[in-house]
Amino acid sequence: MAHNNMAHNDVIKTRLANGMQVVLKESRVAPVASFWIFYRVGSRNENSGATGISHWVEHMLFKGTDNFPRGQFDKAVARAGGIFNGMTSQDWTTYFETFPSDRIELALQVESDRMANATFDVEETESERTVILSEREGAENNYFWLLHEEVQAAAFQAHSYHHPTIGWKGDLRSLTRDDLYRHYRTYYTPNNAVAVAVGDFDAQEMLTRIDRYFGALPAGPEVPPVRLSEPEQKAQRRILLRGEDSTGYAMLVFHAPQATHEDFFALVVLDSVLGGAKGMGLFGDGGNNRSNRLYRALVDTELAVAVASSFQPTLDPSLFSFYITLAPGGDHQAVEDAVWQEIRKIQEDGVRPQELEKAIKQTKAQFVYSSESVTFQAYWLGFSEIVASIEWFDNWLEQLTAVTSADVQRAARRYFQPHLQTAGWYAPQGPQSE
């Protein structure tokens, strides 16, 4: 059955005979258990012509199987007092259920069933095409979303992070049921999955149950490797978007390293100093942090009504981003200059010891808060295994604490340079704009 059991920090990590990774953690705090399946597939694995296919397949796996016809699972979850969801990102697709622990078997039933038996009914596929196209068209009414898509696409020329997770409209119109089904059979397989269970159960017993539900599923094909790498940016890129909305936006993004890179934690601290501490990953939500440098430089001075920075753990090098909502009648160049002024201060003077300490302390607090419940803990374990490793997750607080002012300054100098920048401005149409 399972081999190479590895336990550390009361996390058990093993692999079934068909290649499925299993991560287990007992947590007896409440009579609750959370079960997640992470697949190593997202928009990163998509080629031009088939963008949005992972997100669409994720939707299709909610459409039922012979054992759980459409709508049956939702009713069963509601009856059992549970919650469930699924989502697709650049690097992964995940499904989860959190239940009272005596009902957790339902999660294993459903996830093993849809891993093997999703039907991809032709009519359901077509009706979902309509749903996803209208989801995309709804998003296109939002100029912040549109600008973000344009900036992302301009920042990545070669790597598949160029594509929006929802997909380009032409691809959503032309993908077929067979394309979707082939993608499903290639990626949504035991050997490309990580199963995570956290909660009120006996770990060995849970492993036996997982093996009973998943162990007999056949391994899928060898997954096509992603060999794309983004060439180093040589020229600053600029996007100017105009439209009907009277609120102006600005975005500045810079190429930044992946989760396993030695500069990763220095940039997490830099993100906290500039834009405030945040929980990482899915549930990352910065508190209302008005003491950060960007808030003081842009909002307190009334250049902007909102400003945020963002840096997330990813499998391949991604972006460090700044998002600004301009004050009415605001000036894009003044906003961009103000952000650069804050960057240059750190490049020249570093960060003060008490500022560094506060940034680390607040980031730790957010981290602890975002991994409190069994649901969030299970998410974190699976997510870490995809973008880095469980060891990376175990050493998170230690790595963060080790960051020095010199590390932050060096990272600021290395990654924030004008030729490495992609800047996007959204400005209302008409004579009043720049």
Short structural description:
This protein has helices at 53-60, 72-79, 105-117, 122-140, 143-155, 169-174, 177-187, 203-214, 264-275, 293-299, 332-349, 353-369, 374-387, 390-394, 396-401, 405-415; strands at 3-8, 11-15, 21-26, 32-39, 83-88, 93-100, 193-199, 237-243, 249-256, 304-311, 318-326, 421-428. The protein has 434 residues and is an alpha+beta fold. The strands form 2 sheets. Strands 1-2-3-7-4-6-5 form a 7-stranded mixed β-sheet, with helices on both faces. It has a 5-stranded mixed β-sheet with strand order 8-12-9-11-10, with helices on both faces.
Written description of the protein model:
This protein is of the alpha+beta class and 434 residues long. The protein folds into two domains: 3-214, Cytochrome Bc1 Complex, Chain A, domain 1 (2-Layer Sandwich); 237-428, Metalloenzyme, LuxS/M16 peptidase-like (Cytochrome Bc1 Complex, Chain A, domain 1), CATH 3.30.830.10. It is built from 16 helices and twelve strands. A seven-stranded mixed β-sheet has the order 1-2-3-7-4-6-5, with helices on both faces. Strands 8-12-9-11-10 form a five-stranded mixed β-sheet, sandwiched between helices. A hairpin with a 2-residue loop joins strand 1 and strand 2. The longest helix has 19 residues, at 122-140. The relative contact order is 0.16.
Show the helix and strand layout.
Elements: E1 3-8, E2 11-15, E3 21-26, E4 32-39, H1 53-60, H2 72-79, E5 83-88, E6 93-100, H3 105-117, H4 122-140, H5 143-155, H6 169-174, H7 177-187, E7 193-199, H8 203-214, E8 237-243, E9 249-256, H9 264-275, H10 293-299, E10 304-311, E11 318-326, H11 332-349, H12 353-369, H13 374-387, H14 390-394, H15 396-401, H16 405-415, E12 421-428
